Amino acid sequence: MPTRRWRIAVVAAFPLAGLVASACGGGGAALAQQACTHVQRSLDLYASAKHAPSPTLAHHERRAALTQLRLALRPASLAGSAGGAYQALQATLEESSRVPESYLVRALSAQCANITSGS
C-alpha cells in the first residue's frame, strides 16, 4: 500500500511532467514567450525605478524587477532544454544572480524581441 508521502510525490510530479513534455515538444516557444513576459515586466519595473520619485520606491521597483527575472528563469530553462534557439535567453537570465540588471538590459531586450517576433 503506497505511503502518503509517495502519493504526494506522484501528485506533485504530474504538473512538472506536463511542463517537461511541453518543453520537449513544440512547447519551447510557448515557454520562451512566458519567460519573455516576465522579462518585459522586469525591464519595465527597472526603467520605472530609474525615474522613481523616492529612493524607497526605486528600491522596491528594483526588487520587483529582480523577482520577475527569477520568475522568468524556470520557463527559460525549460525552453532552453528544448532547443538551442532559447539557450541564450536561459544563459542571460542565469547571470542575473551574479550581474546587475543594468548589464543585462540590452541582451534581454534583444533576445526577447527575437522570441516575440518569431525570429
Fold and architecture overview:
With 119 residues, the chain is mostly helical. The protein contains 5 helices and no strands. Helix 1 packs across helix 3 (55-82) and helix 4 packs antiparallel against helix 5. The longest helix is centred in the middle third of the chain and has 28 residues, at 55-82. It is elongated. The N and C termini lie far apart (51 Å). The model is unreliable at 6-24 (pLDDT under 50).
Can you tag this structure with a few keywords?
about 120 residues; mainly alpha; elongated
Succession of helices and strands: HHHHH
Termini separation: 51 Å
Describe the sheet with the most strands.
Answer: none
What's the gyration radius in Å?
Answer: 17 Å
Q: Strand pairing plus helix content: what structural class?
A: mainly alpha
Percentage of β-strand residues: under 5%
Total E-strand runs: 0
pLDDT averaged residue by residue: 84
Estimate percent helicity: over 70%
Shape: elongated
Low-pLDDT sequence parts: 6-24
Helix tally?
5
